[in-house]
Amino acid sequence: MNTSLPSVNNLLSNIKSTVELLIQFRGDSLTTKYGAIERLRLAILAILSHGLKENTGDIYEQLWQLIVRLNANSQRYIRLLQDIYSKENIRLSVEQWIDQSVISQCLSQQLSCAINDNDLLPNYYYSKCFSVYF
Fold it and tell me: pTM of the predicted model, to two decimals?
């Protein structure tokens, strides 16, 4: 595993500060003027790519496969994936999925199936990637 990865604490701290900013300064100007959605996307991308197993494919291709698997049992979310999928630009597809999931406030629901799927995380992530040592 790459030792230059940010710590889990840094990842969580980054997303925490971004969410606090969103809560403190609600409104459209925050998302347009201060780039809150972009900041949140970057924080979520950092978390999703943290400890991702290094397969031969592109990191965004791996993330897209994970996203599809997370949403495989939901017709609602499968339609969202079909709408944003771009074979020519998988990175854009991943970024649009994050943006749309944040905007529609369904990211947590989409990620929650990973809790019940014992094979999902081990297929995509190293076993200790999200461990926090006290």
Answer: 0.78
